[in-house]
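Bit of a strange request maybe. I'm writing a small parser for structure token strings and I need a real example to test against, not something I typed by hand. Could someone generate the tokens for this chain?
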Amino acid sequence: MERVHTLMDSPYGELTLVATDGVLSGLYMTDQRHRPAQETFGDRDESPFGEAISQMEAYFAEELTEFDLELRLDGTPFQRRVWDELLRIPYGETRTYGELAEVLGRPGASRAVGLANGKNPISVIVPCHRVVGANGSLTGYGGGLDRKQRLLAFESRTAVAADALF
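Reply from user aminoacidic:
Good idea to test on real output. This should exercise your parser:
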């Protein structure tokens, strides 16, 4: 198993992209909670990240609302189910932890959903920032609540602007 990483700038600070055997397996913000140790990211090598960087740049330029990348999401079966559901949350929308738990057939598992959400290894692309508390509050975000608020405002504004075009 070969792991490599690269860095990219973003409006939310420097991002670390990690690939395992050539497939994107991590996208971490600086000071992100549950961020693995830097030494686990492997050597710096930009070669497997061209498409991921291109799509991230298009996202930040408000030109892309849905990513089309091969992802390697390593986690428990429950975590992977939660992360798969995160990928179904449309750009510019949010879901509550309870709503995700319902969709997963585990209506009492909103806390477990929250824990899995917090361990998401591929920020932004797997949109864990789109999950909010039952009353719409911005509860927890591995990248920090300020970044979560900024990402949601960015997507909301972009989605509203796109709706105005049609």
